[in-house]
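Form 7-S
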Amino acid sequence: MVRGRDLSDFERGVIVGARMAGVSVTKAAQLTGVSIGTVTKVTAAYKTQGKSSVSRVGNCGRQRSLGEHDARALVQFVKKNRSATLAQVTESVNAGRSHSVSARTVRRQLHREGYYKEVTVPRASATGSPEDCGNGEAEGEAEQEAEGHSDDVASTVDQTS
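Output:
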């Protein structure tokens, strides 16, 4: 008898079929090469759940602190408030919870949902001129300062020669 491995769906079906055909628990265990306790558990699971295969996926390991409902609420909040900071999003998640979650947990969940750290870039207007973006004045002032600075350098060079 092999110990510690999961039964395949076929093996579970053989056990259930043998028991339904009237084979004893001991004979079913010998037929499949599993313990008597395993035969009993598989048979009981079939009688209560109505299926021979028992899915263990999703039951193993530590449960996530943010469930499916919390994840949907988180995505809805982020869609409504695209410019919200991580601290604001974390605060909104923790608002109605008895157990608070950290900002890192919120960041991980957002990453799972497809939201990544992004930099917002101002959009150009319909005319496409950079002055309409709000940066035109600052660029113009910087150019004037650069031109004025170059004149100062040129005047100092002229005075020394």
